[in-house]
Design brief:
- This protein has five helices and no strands.
- It has 67 residues and is mainly alpha-helical.
- It has one domain: SP0561-like, CATH 1.10.3910.
- Helix 4 crosses helix 5.
- The chain is globular.
- The chain starts with 8 loop residues before the first helix and ends with a helix.
């Protein structure tokens, strides 16, 4: 699975639950909330004032290293 800014957070967490740590690192502590699970990474980053491109790159790098 390749993660993009349009990826839904819940889908990412379902695919790789261990990626939650990257969301926690940037202050997204509400990952269990229904609205958070349904948001895209881009939308959530905008709300939290963080860089979606940097988060996506970090998650994809992590996932690539596991394969």
């Amino acid at each position: 699975m390749v993660i993009t800014k349009a990826s839904i957070i819940g889908d990412v967490l379902d695919y790789a639950p261990d990626t939650a740590k990257f969301f926690f690192e940037i202050g997204m502590h509400c990952l269990g909330c229904p609205s958070a699970r349904g948001e895209s990474i881009e939308d959530a980053c905008m709300v939290h004032g963080t860089d979606a491109d940097a988060l996506v790159a970090k998650i994809n790098e992590y996932l690539d290293s596991k394969n």
